[in-house]
Amino acid sequence: MQKTIEMPVSLVGKISKAAKAFEDLEDELEDFLLSKDPKFLEKMRKAKNAGLAGKIRPLKHLKKELCIG
């Protein structure tokens, strides 16, 4: 048997707002942690330099190689 709980619309709105704030917090925390990770930063530097040097390939080729598109 399924039960239903009634909630005020204002409470649902507050829960939604809190969930969005938590999601934003997670994103910012992840960005912060990555910005302090030397291994990640080195990978990003290498990727940037490879791109600037023209050592890139089209995304569609990579997707085909990985069988995802």
Structure at a glance:
The protein has helices at residues 9-35, 38-52, 59-65.
Give me some keywords for this one.
elongated; mainly alpha; 3 helices; 0% strand; 69 residues
What does this structure look like?
The protein has 69 residues and is an all-alpha fold. 71% of the residues lie in helices and 0% in strands. It is built from 3 helices and no strands. The longest helix has 27 residues, at 9-35. The protein is elongated, with a radius of gyration of 22 Å. The chain starts with 8 loop residues before the first helix and ends with a helix. The model has no long low-confidence stretch (mean pLDDT 94).
Give the overall form. Answer: elongated
Total number of strands: 0
Overall residue-averaged pLDDT value: 94
What structural category characterises the helix and strand content? mainly alpha
As a percent range, the share of helical residues equals: over 70%
End-to-end distance: 44 Å
List the helices and strands and how they pair.
Elements: H1 9-35, H2 38-52, H3 59-65
